[in-house]
Design a protein that fits this description.
The chain is mostly helical. It is built from 14 helices and 2 strands. A two-stranded antiparallel ribbon has the order 1-2. Strand 1 and strand 2 form a beta hairpin. The protein is globular. 44% of the residues are buried. It is found in: Membrane. InterPro entries: Chl_synth, ChlG, Prenyltransferase_related, UbiA_prenyltransferase, UbiA_sf. One of its GO terms (molecular function) is chlorophyll synthetase activity.
């Protein structure tokens, strides 16, 4: 592999592509929540009677293209910006927790040339994401550039999450909630604003769901206890100890989803509420089977087993709110 290929491989590693899918899924949920063609009214096609009503997202080339651009904005561009920024400001703590990352491993040195390279990547990804957001607003015919302002807000949250003086991640509560909102609320809002109207009740509901994202963030904190403690970060496992933190984590995930199911039941959508409850049960099973036994040893197994049910529950909630 040539030196040029090595550099681009390192650039991609800095953006952590493994973290992009949740943001892409959030856009899908937002598009679903905006309303998809469902069967309510009536029409006749070839002599057959169907029940239909027009939704906001349609399986047309135009709408699919908009979705893909929104996913590109949310995933590779703005999540890539966030992860590169985080790697730069976390280089000291990564030297303890994740020494294989590009900067602490020495793949990228901290000399002036490499520092400029990383900072350039941060700016290119940020401006690329903001540019795509503005294009989406024009494409959607928005009078008010809501997606652009959502992108600016999300980028600001990403900055204060990683960078001093605020560095939200120094506190387990504020840091993980910001992380949860970034992974659940922001891409949902972007997808819904692209195809429909972002309403106050959806904003509240998705922020509530972000508490479950806080729980997912705590899952990733257990393997970083040594470095967090050494550099004074008050993650939940550091602040409360491993045993208490385990229960805070699963409580945030489960109670949030049960609360959302209760909301759906109260909103007159019992089938969606029951479906969401059904998707919570396997998550609880895997919590006891893996996570609560040893959150460090089984964190990957737990997330691989339980998170698919959580993200399906997110889509179920989106579909429930769409009509």
């Amino acid at each position: 592999m040539s030196e040029k290929e090595d550099i681009w491989k390192i650039r991609v590693q800095l953006t952590k592509p493994v973290t992009w899918p949740p943001l892409v899924w959030g856009v899908v949920c937002g598009a679903a929540a905006s309303g998809t063609p469902l069967c309510i009214g009536t029409c006749k096609i070839d002599g057959l009677c169907f029940k239909t009503f027009p939704g906001n997202f349609h399986w047309t080339v135009d709408d699919v293209a908009k979705s893909l651009v929104c996913m590109m904005m949310s995933g590779p561009c703005l999540t890539g910006y966030t992860q590169t920024l985080n790697d730069w400001y976390d280089r000291e703590i990564d030297a303890i927790n994740e020494p294989y990352r590009p900067i602490p491993s020495g793949a990228i040195s901290e000399n002036e040339v490499c520092k400029l390279s990383v900072i350039t990547q941060i700016w290119v990804l940020l401006l690329g994401g903001l540019g795509l957001a503005r294009i989406l607003d024009v494409w959607a015919g928005h009078d008010f550039p809501i997606i652009f302002y959502l992108a600016i807000g999300g980028s600001l949250v990403s900055y204060i999450y990683s960078a001093p003086p605020l560095k939200l991640k120094q506190n387990g509560w504020s840091g993980n909630f910001a992380l949860g909102a970034s992974y659940i609320s922001l891409p949902w809002w972007a997808g819904q604003a692209l195809f429909g109207t972002l309403t106050p009740d959806i904003i509240v509901l998705t922020l509530l769901y972000s508490i479950a994202g806080l729980g997912i963030g705590i899952v990733n904190d257990f393997k970083s206890v040594e470095g967090d403690r050494a550099l004074g970060l008050q993650s939940i496992p550091v602040a409360f100890g491993t045993e208490t933190a385990k229960w805070i984590c699963v409580g945030a995930i489960d109670i949030t989803q049960i609360s959302v199911a209760s909301y759906l039941l109260g909103a007159g959508k019992p089938y969606y509420a029951l479906a969401l409850l059904g998707l919570i049960l396997p998550q609880v099973f895997f919590q006891f089977k893996y996570f609560l036994k040893d959150p460090v040893k089984y964190d990957v197994k737990y997330q691989a087993s339980a998170q698919p049910f959580m993200v399906l529950g997110l889509l179920m909630t989106a579909l429930a709110t769409s009509h």
